[in-house]
From TrEMBL:
It comes from Pelecanoides urinatrix (Common diving petrel). Keywords: Hydrolase, Magnesium, Metal-binding. Its cofactor is Mg(2+). This is PHOP2 phosphatase. The lineage of its organism: Eukaryota, Metazoa, Chordata, Craniata, Vertebrata. Belongs to the HAD-like hydrolase superfamily. PHOSPHO family.
């Protein structure tokens, strides 16, 4: 009996958007209007690339960025939840599928000593160039019309499950924990024994209830959460069953 826990990162594990948190490093803690307005829907990663160039141009160093990122707050109850999962790793495989980037997630998890809780992190690859600029790339190319250009979370989840099956690992249940519009595509892939846990008051919860109102509800169970303590309660029930 093994459960797969799939976490989004921004507004789920951490209580902020890591990509907008980095702006605290910028001169006067803001970015110019022209740069802000250069964002085009579905092209967030390219936009963040331009933000990182702006930070680099203003002499913001890797150390400054790291110091800023490791002050980002975890969501209520999340530290306890991740501690609980870490103590029960024989029952839980745990992955992150996020539109953030490898550098930010790595810094934040390692600073809080949670990197061992997660088996894999699927997010946009990032690295510092030889000139000290942070660069970011799209996670993959895909053909899903529902998802942003750089990442289809359903495809990531499906490929992970296929790879696990090849290794002889299958899951009693998948629990998907997220908040955003880009979490809807993987949630629609879940089966009736699985559980989607959208964060209360965020876009994913609203999208799931719209589907139900349109009489095309998702197949899996839906449990809304406000604090990660509620996620922990659900996991404790699962492992008792």
């Amino acid at each position: 009996m093994k459960f797969l826990l799939v976490f989004d990162f921004d507004h789920t594990i951490v209580d902020e958007n890591s990509d907008t948190w980095i702006v605290k490093c910028a001169p006067e803690k803001k970015i110019p209007n022209g740069l802000r307005k250069s964002y085009r829907p579905g092209h967030w990663t390219e936009y963040m690339g331009r933000v990182f160039v702006y930070l680099g141009d203003n002499g913001i160093t890797e150390d400054e960025m790291k110091r800023t990122m490791t002050t980002i707050p975890f969501t209520a109850g999340m530290v306890d939840l991740l501690g609980f999962i870490g103590e029960n790793k024989e029952l839980f495989d745990c992955i992150i599928v996020s539109d953030s980037n490898t550098v930010f997630i790595d810094w934040i998890l390692k600073a809080a000593d949670f990197h061992k809780v997660f088996d894999e992190v699927f997010t946009n690859p990032a690295a510092f160039s030889s000139t000290g600029y942070l660069t970011v790339q799209n996670f993959h190319a895909h053909h899903c019309a529902k998802c942003p250009k750089n990442l289809c979370k359903r495809r990531v989840l499906k490929e992970f499950l296929d790879k696990q099956l090849e290794r002889g690992v299958s899951y009693t249940q998948i629990v998907y924990i997220g908040d955003g519009e880009n979490d809807l595509c993987p949630v629609m892939f879940l089966k009736k024994d699985d559980t989607a846990m959208p964060r209360r008051g965020y876009t994913l919860e609203k999208k799931i209830s719209q589907l139900a109102q349109n009489l095309s509800p998702v197949e899996c169970s839906v449990l809304v959460w406000s604090s990660a303590a509620e996620i922990m309660s659900h996991l404790k029930v699962l492992i008792k069953e």
